[in-house]
Write a structure and sequence with these properties.
The protein is of the alpha+beta class. 48% of the residues lie in helices and 13% in strands. The protein is built from 25 helices and 16 strands. Strands 1, 2, 3, 7, 8, 9 and 10 form a 7-stranded mixed sheet that branches. A hairpin with a 2-residue loop joins strand 9 and strand 10. The longest helix has 29 residues. It is flat and about 100 Å long. The chain starts with a strand and ends in a 12-residue tail after the last helix.
Amino acid sequence: MNNALLEIGTEHLPARFLLPTLEQLKNNAAEILREHRLKYVSLRTFGTYRKLVLEIKDLASVSEDIQKEVKGPPAKLLKDAEGNYTPQAAGFAARNGIQPAQLVTVETEKGPFIYAKVKIKGEKTQKLLPGIFTEIIKSLNFPKNMVWEDSGFHFARPIRSILALYGDKVVKFEIAGVKSNRFTYPLISFGRKPIKINTPQDYTETLKNQPQPILADIEERKTALIKTVQSCAKALGYKADLDESLLTETLSFTEHPVALSGDLDIKFLTLPRELITTVLKTQLRMFPVLNDADELQPHFIAVRDGISVNQDEVRNGFKNVMTARLTDAVFFYENDLKTGLDAMREKLSTVNFIDGMGNMLEKTERVEKLSEQIAQALNLTSEQKSAVKEAAHYAYADLTGGVVYEFSELQGYMGGVYAEKTGKNKQAAKAIGEFYYPLTASSALPSTLEGAVVSLAGKIDSLAANFAMGQIPSGSEDPYALRRQAMGAVRIMAENNFNLSVKEIIAKANSLLPKANEHTAELENFLWQRLANILETNGSSADEIAALEDVSKTPAKIIAAAEALKESRSGESLVSVGQSAKRVGNILKKAGVKETGSINPALFEQPEENALFKALEDIQNQIKPDLGLETKEAYCAILKALSAFELPLNNFFDKVMVNAENAAVKNNRINLLSAIYKVLTGSAADISKLQKRG
């Protein structure tokens, strides 16, 4: 066994390509090695924006032997009447490298056939690797590709070198006009003098020991990056804002990260904090500097690739670019303040929302109305309603401002800043600032009730409008991030215990649209799927989720019921009653029952009917028409009561014939079962969906 190494040397890859490509390289290599029956101890990928590296430890020297059954002619052609092998059988055996006597017959769906059991011997790894490495490189896919040479090979960026080793031997092959060898190359700013790699084990250490070290291992590079950034911050007497996404991006455009600090003009600190940090992190890839109270300080930390002797010139270069960008930010910010939210809001009439659904000003007006309806349904105070109305009025205004035009990720936040600066209601300003929350499926929700109401209204209007126009996500396609908005809407409703169901909120939004929504059922299911995802994450099983599907209940109630269901099904009674409920449902379906009729106890002929009716009355007394925002404990009590149906239901089915000869008795029994079915499937959950385990 030897180690193997493949390095694909490229021109500068976009930072966002690196980590996904390395993951893809690892997965594809594992699959291709499996297909070629080559065993190994471990496999990993690492690298930089110019080096995609695959390392295979203890790769077998020969691929595995396999036994293969090859189907041949029908069995009747094995031998002739004299018992000799037919020409067809002999030829089939010869083609597979065996004697006719080694052929066997196998019974198949189409009758008996001749089969050859062939042993395919493994091949030497050194012989297989050129094709395997070529296949691995060709298997990589990218969001965008380039063609740069005559063969027309596609890759993210031009391939300039290929290092391929098995043990101390070069694996020889050629792709895109580049021949493999044992050489890699130094940092891009230090020429093209090749670096010789003797064996795979030498690779990372050889690169680290260059006059300008290259840290090919990503974790090692991350450790070095954090250390150099923290050292700069410590020298200033502060700490660095080690934003995880910025760390990841920086790792993806450096081979040897070296940090250096600089100062920014203190006047820039008058800008809103998120505006400053967005310029530094997003546009300039610089780390902000903070004090112990996490307040921004007039410094920055930039990262360059490799050590240089002219650090002052590099620092000044970073500072000049940063000053120019922050000066632009000051201009846009001050200009937006002069323009004012009202003027920015009016300009929304020039911004299209969705074809057929009007412009952004018309959307704003719908969101205002929907916010007011939600606030009314939730019985908010007059002060809260006023803040909701003001927040909804200006929710989208900053979209026409200069800052958001330059930094779209600051939408909402800048509106909140402008509202606060111009003396708007404080709660309204906060709600505007958090209007787009949550920014991801699991990130923070709006921190105030007013913010939650307005954010929910905006998301539901966007969902209803898109679905009404037939813009429904399918597969991986979701250009308008509707899945994220739907998850945000469901989380807001659930985590704030809003007494609104999915069905209600969609109906309210639909009533405000300029066009009828013919895809309401799909939208209800779309939101339900997001809620189902939450239930699954919380540990609910597939049958429990199916039992809870009901868009006419509030998300908060469904989540409470889910917790109760997980706890209550630990015994056998609830599931047993659920199986009986399924039987009841089948009886009602066969009888064509759609509505529950009245039950007349005087028509009961057997004690089991009376016992079942008594159990029904008992639970109906416990379950009120509207229990409000039920807790898990309330649902546990309901489910416990449902479990009490086990004995009377079993006795009923054992002793009572539903299809009695007397039509009145038969209908009365069906009405009794119908009432019970309604309780069993609609009180806390549809327990007929529960499955027996084990």
